[in-house]
Amino acid sequence: MGKIIGAVLGFLVGGPLLALVGLAAGHFFDRGLRQAMGFNYTAERQRIEAVFFDTVFRVLGHLAKADGRVSESEIAQAEAIMSQLKLSPERRQQAIARFKEGSAADFSLEPQIASFVQAVGRQNLLRRLLLEALLAMALADGHLHDAEREVLSKVALYLGVSTADFERLLQMANAQRHFHSGGYSQGGGAPSDALADAYEALGVDKTCSDAELKRAYRKLMSEHHPDKLIARGVPDEMLKLATEKSQEIQAAYELIKKNRA
To answer: Residue 59: pLDDT above 50?
Structure first.
């Protein structure tokens, strides 16, 4: 854009010769602007990555403490999650530190979520992805206890996620876990259970049209595409959860298509 404006203005002022001068000036303007925008963008993305990571593991610690004490099984579950995310030794130590901060008696949930919301601004997708990540981790042991559900409901409230949307995300997360653990994509599990989980994993009713099914599938796949998430500031470790979720969404969609053929 700078080159175009420079060339046009140069031509209007002094003809072809000054148009070339304006073109050169516009080129340097464009390059400087790109560098400035790139620097700001990179710094902003890194800031979001940091607050995303900190929020996930602090809230995990808070979830573990929700019933009054952090049990050995909850510590083991947190360690299993860190292993699943393939954290580097340095990042693992950071995650453990944040987990301990979240499980401390003086930890306050609302300011932590407020800090996250301030960092991501109006990026509603990142708010939902944070909630999805926390739901997936809370459901990793196969159960969502009442105390954990209460904490996650508060997280949803602070994120601006409605009660109806929270319940829908919870149902989808549960179905995706069932679908994944049941190995339905390889033919395991009862067909009726498989299909019920597949529809719920995509957030659609079994009576939906083929067009509605495809639209829901494409929307979910687009929202969990790694390139899009990286650009928005999702930490590398969280991309593993998004990749796994994409695989579950893909398998659910393929099973439904196969049974509709």
So the answer is: yes
pTM: 0.75
Alpha-carbon distance of 260 to 210, in angstroms, equals 9
Residues near 75 by Cβ (< 8 Å), separated by ≥ 6?
64
Nearest residue to 3 via CA among 37, 33, 34, 28? 28
Half-sphere exposure at residue 241, Cβ-oriented, CA atoms within 13 angstroms? 27
Tokens 């042991």 belong to which residue? 141
CA–chain centroid gap for 166, Å, is 15
Q: Are 223 and 123 in contact (CB under 8 A)?
A: no
Question: Structural domains in the chain?
Answer: 174-261 (1.10.287.110)
Which residue, among 192, 191, 196, 184, has the nearest Cα to 247 in the 3D structure? 184
**Cα 7 to Cα 10: distance, rounded to the nearest angstrom:** 5
